[in-house]
Amino acid sequence: MKWEEEGYTRKDEHGNIISIEEYEDSQRATGASRVMTKGDLKLYAICGVGFFLDSYDLFIINLVTPIWTYEYWGGLAKPPKKTPTYPLLLRGAVNAAANIGNIIGQLSFGFLGDAFGRKFVYGKEMIIMIVGVILVISLPNHLKGPTRNKFWYLFGMRVLMGIGIGGDYPMSASIVAERSSLRNRGRMLGWIFSNQGWGTLAGSIVTLIVLGCFSKALKHGEYSQLDAVWRIQIGVALLPAFATLYQRLTMPESKKYLQSGELSMLKPSSLSSSATTMEYTGKGAKAHTSDADSNEFSSQDRNALFVEAHVAPPTRDVQMKTFMIYFSEWRHLKQLIGTASCWFFVDVAFYGLNLNQSVLLAAIGFSKGKTEYDTLLKNAYGNLIIAAAGYVPGYFLTIYFIEILGRRWIQIQGFLVCALMFGIIAGDYAHLGTAGKFVCFTIAQLFFNFGPNATTFIVPGELYPSRVRGFAHGLSAATGKLGAILSGVLFNYLSSPGQIGVANVLWIFFACNVAGAISTFFLVPETKGVDADALDFKECQEKVARM
Predict the structure, then answer these.
(1) Average per-residue pLDDT in the chain?
(2) CA–CA separation, 198 vs 399, rounded Å?
């Protein structure tokens, strides 16, 4: 599959270059408008696979943990001989390992993507993720020392895998935002991010298929086969990763990134001079000259100039200062605090629920079985039902409504509905039945994704100009992963007997969702129809005018 700049331009019936907005207008006028164009499908296939793998690799741990408990921590022994002894804090550390790597990847790849360009960085994160997955499934069972040594090995390799996963967040968000029109940008970002839902759903389906393949042996008590089960579960992620690696590595540089980065190098005199400058508008960049005697460019000439313009990327020392200068203004810093804090609040609850969904299903009595095989099967079915009924539909509600209702409305209502669901479960935990708790968890998953889990990814991709977008998005995402790490490490410990218990942990999730709604209301602006690059250029001109 060949990359093209189809996010910026189209060709008319005569083969002439036209802007994407002109193309959409012509499609709408003839009634030929489609959900996705050819260029959109290319973006969806290449960038979307990254989020499919992100979700699959991050959440498959939820389905693998019970198998590890059986295989390595005495879960197969019957009482009173022995009970599972998978240490709670070690389990939390292994669960959170990928999120620790996420922070490193989001910050480093976000900065490198702004400093060196999207082309320089894109695809390298996939290589790191592939290497990490291979090393995880290559866990040597003959590793000497106590069992915990094997799990510290898994911890280290999952951190490496997480670096690659984290690097995909700011890069794919920036690439999609820079290759989409204002009218479909939010919807396109929603389509790309919806692959998280498919990744989670695929994890449950793969688990059911693999367990089915080994059912005969497992039903006869041959539990040594579980070693192959979990390695296949995790290793399946390598197939789509290898399938899209070449396309990522051969991606051309984003024109909008180059044009936005030019602002970091321009001197004030350049912005105010009568020489030809690049003006950012909702339809792209147009060339203007102040010479009254010169002829205006034709529409085709302007669009050709837009497509063929190759602006040199900013020098490294200039780009390193750009982020600090841009966010030294309170109006920009306030927005960064808003996108980062909202992502933190949602990830505390979202990852607390998803990384430990198997634990919660067992706690509410859903995944109890007569045998170990029955327990694993019921756990996989429970995860599948929640993904199919709540997780995946939530993304498509966001895709449908995002250009109608806007980002802020979807984010606030999602936070509030999730808070309500956690409040219901926590408030009546002792009396609410298994079915009631299961339904509330499913509704919470629906409104996480028709809500803040989707919009906290989309808004930073639209709110910041291209020259700081990668690092700003990465910093927001990394702050969110701090919340995910807290949940991953502390959930099992705090919810265990003798600590605060599951109900009180759910009250913490309730509080985080309320705080997220408040933060959104006061700190996060609406980005529907907003061209951040156009605003950035306008702000630069205003600064010059005040000099």
Answers:
(1) 81
(2) 14
